[in-house]
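Technical note accompanying the year-one report. For the benefit of new consortium partners, we illustrate the data format agreed upon in the data management plan: each record pairs a sequence with a structure-token string. No post-processing was applied to the example shown here.
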Amino acid sequence: MKFDANQFIAYDPYDSFTGLGERFVKSTGESSFSGWRDPLTSDAIALWRLGRDAFQALEVGSKVEFDDGFSGFLDGMEMNRSMLRELCATGAISPQTAEGIPVSPDWESYRADELLAYIWQLREQIPNVQPVADPLLRTGFLYSCLKQIDDALIAYMIEGRGVVQATLGAAADYANAIALRSGSLELKKARQELAIKGAMERIRRDPKTADKETVKAYWLRWIKQPDLYESKAAFVRDMLDGKTTALTGNAETVNRWLRQWEDKQNVKYPYLVNTTKPAQ
């Protein structure tokens, strides 16, 4: 099974919820569980019904319309990440650790539901968007629900771990979507508070957030002392070799951060002539 976070892997939502029977199927029509572990029986039916309700709430009339909507959802999540990076960079928002230390979260690592929860809070601080905000957020939560169901199925098929978290996440997404459509200010407020509490807890506890701050500090030092590293590759290796705790050899993450900081500060590599060794 080839994994792609931006695609439905374990099932096809449109075919699963417009076909006959309460079962998850792939786009080929075969069972999602073909070749994997036995189906989840009653649990699978409950998960299927949750997905069906979310799918029906989208009110799409064709597979093309569903796929276009999902593509728009993915594009929207990237726009949200870009917006959050910009708001952090300009100081418009100031996420903090549990100790109250300002941090710059790695928004690329956050799930759609976490991003949506944060945007749900922020949009009330942005004027003149209220008439369109609820429908956009509601659609986002519905697509996120369907994607978390996919995550739950993958977790079950592979090893069984992560099923509960993904299932609860899907249920929370659907509840948020229902609240946004209900017209009840009390219900929306209650769901919003639960959603933002979970998103903020992720920011406070995310070890990669602290790693990003560490890497940035070393990068700023390198800018001022360009002979500390002979290349970007040397810098990245040094960051992964004991200076960070949660990146687990993820060089691409460090390189992505470097590109973001270079663009933001209008700095070009090579910064100057680099000749010697990693910082100690």
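Partners are asked to follow this layout when depositing records. The first helix runs from residue 13 to 18.
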